[in-house]
Amino acid sequence: MIVRVGTSLPCPPEEAWAILLAWERQADWMLDADRVEVVSARREGVGVRLAVRTRILGLPFTEAMEVTGWDPPRRLVLRHGGVVAGEGTWTLTPEAGGTRFDWIEDVRLRVPAIGELAARLYAPVLRWLMRRAARGLRGAVIASGPRRR
After folding, report:
1. Domain 2-144 falls in which CATH fold?
2. Would you give the end-to-end CA distance of the chain in angstroms?
3. What is the pLDDT of residues 15-36, one digit of tens each?
4. What is the pTM of this model?
5. In this structure, are residues 106 and 95 in contact, taking their beta carbons and an 8 Å threshold?
6. Cα 79 from Cα 124, distance rounded (Å)
7. Domain boundaries, the chain
8. How many Cα atoms within 13 Å fall on the side-chain side of residue 102?
């Protein structure tokens, strides 16, 4: 299943990138995540590993994630390694007045026998969660204010 959302952020890509990479602060704007923790020695680049305490349909679990694509400040790819399999891609593109943030999740649910059906039923929920998170990210960018140059 592929789900796409996007929003405009009122800041340059470098500032948006810095907010995205404040790993432990992601739960502030990604409201289905309760906690994000870096579990690797490195905090930047391919190979960064995360433990994300999250919920699917209200059920809590910890998802292992790993950075598999890294092109600052343009593109970040995270591989899901738990109940959700696949990858999410965040892309930052300069636009008039700021940055376009696009988020694509290409995922499937590892649910025996009913995985495809479960994914189809979950797609609208995931889209809603991603839209809410994109709005939360925009709010976090606005709340951070302009950087001093």
Report:
1. Alpha-D-Glucose-1,6-Bisphosphate; Chain A, domain 4 (3.30.530)
2. 42
3. 999 999 999 999 999 988 999 9
4. 0.86
5. no
6. 21
7. 2-144
8. 12
**Amino acid letter for position 66:** E
Question: DSSP E strands: which ranges in the chain?
Answer: 2-9, 33-38, 49-56, 59-71, 75-81, 84-95, 98-109
Q: Tokens in use for 60?
A: 């809590």
pLDDT tens-digit readout, 69-78: 999 999 999 9
Structure tokens at 97: 């007045």
The phi, psi pair for 64, rounded to 5°, reads -85, 130
Place of tokens 């948006």: 16
Nearest to 76 by CA among 98, 50, 55, 51: 50
Token match 């810095």: residue? 18
